[in-house]
Predict the 3D structure of the following.
Amino acid sequence: AEGEPLHDEL
Amino acid sequence: MNIFRLIGDLSHLAAIIILLLKIWKSRSCAGISGKSQILFAIVFTTRYLDLLTSFISLYNTCMKVIYIGCAYATVYLIYMKFRATYDGNHDSFRVEFLVVPVGGLAVLINHDFSFLEILWTFSIYLESVAILPQLFMISKTGEAETITTHYLFCLGLYRALYLFNWIWRFYFEGFFDMIAIVAGVVQTVLYCDFFYLYVTKDGKGYRFSI
């Protein structure tokens, strides 16, 4: 895990 | 944003609004699983906590707020305003059999072991199975109103379109989210049987058996 991913979907 | 995702989101929105309007206009939630709707409210709540931490786009924020608002409005209509019409006896799916394993899985398999990320993962896993109480209810009573089948069709279409969206994003953006994809495939597969019945019966006079 390399940091929290940004979730751009709904 | 690509066309599959946009139409998918709109299909999802259509499903949510169809259900709300159906309950509101008929003043009844007969045939609707309150448990599935509670699960969807939990799904949106746990997934969209990032509304508080990150801004993606106006579109993204608006849709999230609308989804959450509609989900709670639906739960309110079923369990408060029109609770007299709620068919609790047929809504007998044991949701703890979904929520507990899904919670365990989210803790075990995630992109990052952090609070928000585990909740996001939980919401993805939970969404993939949240419709089961509704499908279970239909299979138990053996019937579904036409409008309810339209709701389910839009909901299934949304997930199927997201699969195309992920194929698109993989080829053109190199984007690849294994957790979302696997859960999305599972979710879409759950609708296959329903899709088949929906198409072959052409949305008319339902005696629905699953």
Q: What stands out?
A: The two ends of chain A are 22 Å apart (CA to CA).
